[in-house]
Amino acid sequence: MKQLFQHAAITDGITVRVAVNFLPEQSRPDDGKWFWVYHIRIENGSDSRVQLVSRHWRITDARGIVSIVDGEGVVGEQPVLDPGQAHDYVSGCPLDTPHGTMEGFYTFHLLDAQGSGQPLEVRIPFFPLAAPATAG
Questions:
Q1: pLDDT digits over 9-67, tens only?
Q2: 116 pLDDT above the threshold of 90
Q3: Which residue of 10, 13, 95, 103 is most buried, as measured by CB atoms within 10 A?
Q4: What SUPFAM superfamilies does the entry give (predicted)?
Q5: So what's the architecture of 7-128 in CATH?
Q6: Which long-range contacts (CB under 8 A, 24 or more apart) does 18-27 make?
Q7: 38 near 90, Cβ under 8 Å?
């Protein structure tokens, strides 16, 4: 099944695309729990070899409560992307409200011949988390 990416941001030739879906089977609105899955595609359209080394997320719920999530890589990986390559991964986000937002950035290293280089902050596009009205 072809994924429809609803949101995108480009930083220095690196494109981050996001598709997000509410998962009613993982949510329990009666208990105040909602869950979304998001699919990220990172496309290296730059002329440089890059490695994703860390992530920074800002997750805001419907009450305005902000959670900051920092960590190494994505889903346990620190992918290296040559020019023209892409990396896909899927992760999830639980909230205590039926609506919220996510945004953030990845830190990449531009890899030179020795395998280390300058850091580059690549924006993750802002995207909403919204449960259908029928979901609670």
A1: 999 999 999 999 999 999 999 999 999 999 999 999 999 999 999 999 999 999 999 99
A2: no
A3: 95
A4: ApaG-like
A5: Sandwich (2.60)
A6: 18/124, 18/125, 18/127, 20/102, 20/127, 20/128, 20/129, 22/129, 22/130, 22/131, 22/132, 22/135, 23/92, 24/131, 24/132, 24/135, 26/92, 27/131, 27/135, 27/136
A7: yes
